[in-house]
Amino acid sequence: MVMQRKLRLRSRSDFSRIYKAGRSFANSQFVVYWMKRPETERFRAGVSVSRKLGGAVVRNRMRRVVKELIRLNADKIAERTDFIVIVRRPALGMKTKDLERSLLHALRKAGLLAGSQAGGSDNRRNGGTTVGRPRPQGHPHV
């Protein structure tokens, strides 16, 4: 079974809007960009796999696997949210169960699982990194 069409982000404008105005969280396998959308009832998801990760067969397989994991865990994902999952290279060699665990970790840290808080406590201590936020001026990168 495939993810329902109404739950998919497809247009370039939707992706661009989320990349520009949304927030993000990353672990070693996935980057998740998200944005709250009060006017929609359900969540909508998009999946992106770079050409750098492999040919069309590899990219399409990863896209299908991630969309299926989202579909299987749809009841756990917070409503009224648009999000994009970007697959990173370490995800390519992983088993589906490990991919699911990693995806749920990224969604939980992003605050996209029902009952979770956005951002978590200390992302570095918990194995994740925050992406796309400017560093304060005058502070060295640690």
Task: Provide the fold topology.
Elements lengths: L11 H10 L1 E4 L3 E7 L7 E6 L6 H17 L8 E7 L8 H14 L33
Parallel strand pairs: 3-4
Antiparallel strand pairs: 1-2, 2-4
Characterization of this structure:
The chain has 142 residues and is an alpha+beta fold. It contains three helices and four strands. Strands 1-2-4-3 form a four-stranded mixed β-sheet, sandwiched between helices. Strand 3, helix 2 (56-72) and strand 4 form a beta-alpha-beta unit. The longest helix has 17 residues, at 56-72. The radius of gyration is 15 Å and the shape is globular. Mean pLDDT is 84; it is low at 120-130 and 133-142.
Order of helices and strands: HEEEHEH
The counted number of beta strands is 4
Q: What is the CA–CA distance across the termini?
A: 45 Å
Helical content (DSSP H or I, runs of 4+): 25-40%
- Walk across the major sheet and give the strand order: 1-2-4-3
- Classify the secondary structure makeup into a structural class: alpha+beta
What is the residue-averaged pLDDT? 84
**Biggest sheet descriptor:** 4 strands, mixed
